[in-house]
């Protein structure tokens, strides 16, 4: 099983979490979706589900709580979402906001400081540089615009792989002399490595 871990504020709605998952997976958000926590359906209104504009904090999720996220229901892509941990929001961002720095300015300064580091890395292609800056900007934006004093949630999303893709992964892993899981873990770490 492949998984993505994302950190989100507890004020984030299920609709916004859907957007985060879409970005993390590189999907376009063009299909219907639904979350099913505690046997209640929240999602696309076309499914006669409840509105997904409910904040995670109102679901009163406890550490270890699991629920289903479905996307492209013709497929369907079913994912398990699990609340791994609750913790206080990043103290650095909280301090910057307490000192009067606006979120947009925080993002501008941090991305502005990060860009030259990436630009000077000769081992990266232009596309890789752009991808790293985009990923960093998304992370900083999420932290900067989170409400101060709120809790952060570590959410784990399990992603099932299609059999054809698993076959391709097995072939590549075999050529590298690795197990499937070891190769997937290495590939994810390499793609997330930020200088």
Automatic annotation (TrEMBL):
InterPro entries: MM3350-like_sf, Plasmid_pRiA4b_Orf3-like
Domain of life: Bacteria
Pfam families: PRiA4_ORF3
Gene3D superfamilies per record: MM3350-like
All copies of domain Plasmid pRiA4b Orf3-like, residue ranges: 2-93
Entries under SUPFAM superfamilies matching the protein: MM3350-like (SSF159941)
Name used for this protein in its record: Plasmid pRiA4b ORF-3 family protein
UniProt source species: Microvirga tunisiensis
Upper classification of the organism: Bacteria, Pseudomonadati, Pseudomonadota, Alphaproteobacteria, Hyphomicrobiales
């Amino acid at each position: 099983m492949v998984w993505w871990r994302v950190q989100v504020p507890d004020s984030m709605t299920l609709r916004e979490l859907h957007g985060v998952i879409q970005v993390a997976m590189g999907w376009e958000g063009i299909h219907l979706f639904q979350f099913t926590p505690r046997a209640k359906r929240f999602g696309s209104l076309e499914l006669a589900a409840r509105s997904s504009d409910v904040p995670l904090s109102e679901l009163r999720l406890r550490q270890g709580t699991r629920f289903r996220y479905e996307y492209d229901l013709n497929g369907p892509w079913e994912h398990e979402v699990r609340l791994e941990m609750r913790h206080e929001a990043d103290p650095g961002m909280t301090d910057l906001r307490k000192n009067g720095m606006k979120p947009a300015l925080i993002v501008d300064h941090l991305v502005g400081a990060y860009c030259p580091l990436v630009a000077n890395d000769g081992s990266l292609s232009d596309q890789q540089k752009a991808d790293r800056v985009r990923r960093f900007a998304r992370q900083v934006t999420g932290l900067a615009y989170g409400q101060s004093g709120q809790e952060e949630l570590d959410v784990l999303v399990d992603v099932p792989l299609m059999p054809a893709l698993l076959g391709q992964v097995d072939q590549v892993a075999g050529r590298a002399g690795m197990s499937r899981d070891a190769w997937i873990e290495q590939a994810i770490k390499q793609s997330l490595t930020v200088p």
